[in-house]
Design a protein that fits this description.
Largest sheet: 6 strands, mixed
CATH superfamily of the largest domain: L-amino peptidase D-ALA esterase/amidase
CATH class of the largest domain: Alpha Beta
Number of helices: 11
CATH topology of the largest domain: L-amino peptidase D-ALA esterase/amidase
Shape: globular
Radius of gyration: 22 Å
Helix content: 25-40%
Strand content: 15-25%
Structural class: alpha+beta
Number of strands: 15
Strand order of the largest sheet: 13-12-11-14-10-15
Order of helices and strands: EEEHEHEHHEEEHEHEHHHEEEHEEH
CATH architecture of the largest domain: 4-Layer Sandwich
Distance between the termini: 20 Å
């Protein structure tokens, strides 16, 4: 039921990275659910992780390992989050790293584990451990698409994209995959995302570029307002291609391409939101600062009344008005507020727009994609948030998630 989202067809390999998948039957048999990334020596990485206090065991271990050494491998399993699993979960996450380390001949602290799926259940380590050698045997340059499938949970479409970035003296390549469909309000990155480039970039510069890209992409989406225990986004620069840094003439082109790729992946998550029938852009302008604009945007995006009206195609704009009013802005002068659905004005100066007609609003809301545009009339800052509607199918999927 993804909204105007097609499966990716071709991805560009990244020199310095090999990708393999295997079936571990972690939740159920019949599909690959384990992905392994082997990174060339000398690769640099950047990372952002969930801010959820109940961070999953793999997040805890990945943070530890990432702070100690440059990773040589990433191990990702779907079907089980290994979250809320206490000391056993931590031991299992470390054991999975040791299994990869033995198979690849690297140290365990050079392996980062990632998991996604059901919370509160132990990983089936016998099946996972047995699958690691099969994933190693499958390592290849063109394994990205298979990995995008292997990390899916309730996703209906895999999410992946590539870019070639032209520079004055050549080009560099970017490829990324992501997964996510529900429990989406990342507050750092996304459910899981892995982005790589063949450029040679120092770790601190890559971190700055990733953090900026995440802010305007993965940190600007929401499906249901729930931040996962397992969210993580990792960027890899393998160093096999052109050296890049902030003082380079091509740096701005590279960072723009990184943000653009992350935005495509982030929007794909919203388009594939559980039960989604609408893709909604919320544009907030006229705020005093960006934080204020984002607060208004997320308040509207998280309103179940706004989201259910969107599912019904009902231009019940009073729900949008009410959400703006409760966003927590100090001294909001409603006489300065304008609201529109695409190009149809519904509120002007805090009052119903004189030319508004219900049929015009309904025509916008009937579209599979539309924008809610809000101008607060109190500054020059703006923000853009992407969200989905809330459907019967969303309730069904999450009511039956473990059955």
């Amino acid at each position: 039921m993804a909204v105007n989202l097609n499966p990716p067809e071709d991805l560009l390999p990244i020199p310095g990275i090999r990708v393999g998948t295997a079936e571990a039957a972690i939740k159920r048999p019949g599909r690959d659910d384990l992905a392994l990334f082997e990174l060339a020596p000398g690769s640099h990485t950047a990372a952002v992780f969930t801010r959820n206090a109940f961070a999953a065991a793999p997040v805890v271990v990945a943070r530890e390992h990432w702070s100690e050494a440059e990773p040589r491998a990433l191990l990702v399993n779907s079907g089980n989050a290994n979250a809320g699993t206490g000391a056993r979960g931590l031991a299992d996450a470390r054991e999975s790293c040791e299994a990869v380390a033995r198979a690849l001949g690297v140290t365990a602290d050079a392996v980062l584990p990632f998991s996604t799926g059901v919370i509160g259940q132990p990983l089936p380590m016998d099946r996972l451990g047995a699958a690691v050698p099969r994933a190693v045997a499958d390592l290849r340059d063109d394994g990205w698409l298979d990995a995008a499938h292997a990390i899916m949970t309730t996703d209906t479409v895999s999410k992946a994209a590539s870019r070639r970035v032209g520079l004055d003296d050549g080009e560099v390549t970017l490829t990324g995959i992501a997964k996510g469909s529900g429990m989406i309000r990342p507050d750092m990155a996304t459910m899981l995302a892995f982005v790589a480039t063949d450029a040679a970039i120092e770790r601190s510069d890559l971190q700055a570029a990733l953090s900026a890209a995440v802010r305007d992409s993965f940190n600007s989406i929401t499906v249901d307002g729930d931040t996962s225990t397992n969210d993580a986004c990792l960027a890899v620069a393998t160093g096999q291609g052109r050296a890049l840094g902030p003082d380079d003439a091509g740096w701005a082109r590279f960072t723009a391409a990184l943000t653009d790729l992350c935005t495509e992946l982030a929007q794909a998550i919203v388009r594939d939101a559980e039960g989604a029938t609408r893709f909604i852009t919320i544009e907030v302008a006229g705020a005093r600062d960006e934080a204020e604009a984002r607060a208004v945007g997320f308040t509207v995006a998280h309103s179940p009344l706004v989201k259910t009206a969107a599912f019904a195609g009902d231009p019940n704009w009073g729900r949008i008005l009410a959400a703006v009013g409760r966003a927590g802005l100090d001294d909001l002068d409603i006489a300065g507020v304008d609201i529109a659905l695409d190009d149809v004005a519904i509120v002007r100066g805090g009052e119903p727009a004189g030319e508004y007609r219900e049929a015009d609003g309904a025509a916008v809301m009937a579209r599979s994609e539309f924008a809610i545009r809000i101008d607060l009339g109190r500054g020059s800052a703006r923000a853009r948030i992407w969200t989905s509607d809330l459907s019967y199918e969303y309730v069904k999927i999450n009511a039956e998630y473990r059955t």
